[in-house]
Amino acid sequence: MSGTSLDGVDVCLVRLSGHQTEITTDVLFHNSTGFNPALGKQLLEVATSEWVDPGALCRLNIRLAHTYADAIQRAVLAAGLSIDDLDLIGCHGQTVRHVPEPENCAGMDIRSTLQIGDPSVLAHLVGVDVVGDFRMADMGLGGQGAPLVPYLDYVLLSHPTENRGCLNLGGIANLTLLPAGQDRNSVYGFDTGPANLVIDALARGLFGMPYDDWGRLAAQGEVCDELMEALFLDDFLVQKPPKSTGRERFGHAYVASLQSTAMDLPPHDIMATATMFTAKSIFAAYENFVAEHHPLDRLIVAGGGVHNQTLMEMLRNCFAPIPVNTSGKYGIDEDAKEALCFAVLAHETASGHPTGMPSVTGASRSAVLGKYCPAGRQE
Predict the structure, then answer these.
(1) Which residues of the chain have pLDDT under 70?
(2) How far is CA 309 from CA 218, 280, 287, in A?
(3) What is the dihedral of CA 86, 340, 22, 365, to 10 degrees?
(4) Angle at CA 5, nearest 5°, toward 158 and 229?
């Protein structure tokens, strides 16, 4: 998995058995490998530029597959295993565009998305079958193609008597709702807005740091109510689900506008306000679209944002008295969860089980997600 934050590749080695609600997972190893600076810079340029050189996109599509192959081989070696131990690879790829709302193309309104890091190239580099490009099938059925993690939430974290919320704090925050004792057709989820994406960008722009380590920068500032009110004017926050978003909406232009609105605020106050905005926008999404129908008994949080202690404290204050726990309490490593998700999705796809969630994405039916790319036999 490599996500919106563009900080590198997460690899999760996991043994799987069973399917759907009977699935079991045994995570053997997990690590993260940062992008080399030149590759990270080019990926950021492609992901943030309004116009992209097709040649650069073609080259990155192949180059990133090599990066994934190297990360997998390093993880296998570090785990004391060999490539021969691998049966299958699930790879989400790197999102460079996600356009979930219909836009006109040659007289037809379509939803679209693009993930690079070609799965067929990856399969042949590693010598192991790969399932990749998970969003397309859902979009072909009229869905938004994201978020994809709700399937994992449903099969691993549903509870017979508790209404549970599962929050992922990646570049974007997405929330899954698991009504107590219900089947997968009752599960719903959506992106709530930015999480680490805006906070990381501000840390780089204001302090020259890649991210706000443990939330220390935000902890030194005070929240500005005026700036908070301006941030809450964004119409994505009141848009009804299904909905998904990405860097296209909350990327460079958004951060530049935020800083322009902030004017002469001290940098630490800007960080504090942006961090509180993340927490409050998540809670507002819960209040607006969830609380009336499924008041939560528990919120379970994963993703890189769990390491931002200031953000976690703000979330706990917003959701009190609802308990806010990290997924580690339920046996799912907070940093491995998304990579684990794509192992699970690949496992299900290889067996022909549909993992699309129409109640989440708005698709007309559940799709078998991903393209199966065989490595081929050595003759």
Answers:
(1) 377-379
(2) 10, 15, 23
(3) -110
(4) 85
pTM here? 0.93
CA distances for 377 relative to 89, 124, 276, angstroms? 16, 10, 53
**């302090």: which residue's tokens?**
207
What order of strands is seen across the sheet that includes strand 164-169?
188-194, 172-178, 164-169, 298-302, 324-326
Q: What's the start-to-end Cα distance of the chain, in Å? A: 31
Per residue in 163-185, pLDDT tens?
999 999 999 999 999 999 999 99
What is d(CA 169, CA 191) in angstroms, rounded to the nearest whole number? 10
CA-CA distance, 273 to 280, in Å (whole number)? 10
Nearest one of 301, 141, 174 to 243, comparing CA atoms? 174
For residue 136, count CB atoms less than 10 angstroms from its CB and return exposed for 0-12, middle for 13-18, buried for 19 or more. middle
**Is 310 within 8 Å of 318 (Cβ atoms)?**
no
Residue 379: predicted pLDDT: 56
Task: Check if the beta carbon of residue 243 is closer than 8 Å to that of residue 236.
Answer: yes
Q: Letter for the amino acid at 240?
A: K
Distance (Å, whole) CA 160 – CA 318: 26
Q: Which pLDDT score is estimated for 4? A: 80
Tell me how far CA of residue 145 lies from CA of 137, 233, 362, 366, in angstroms. Answer: 8, 26, 9, 11
Instruction: Give the H/E segment covering residue 231.
Output: helix 225-231
Q: Which residue, among 43, 5, 49, 13, has the nearest Cα to 29 in the 3D structure? A: 13
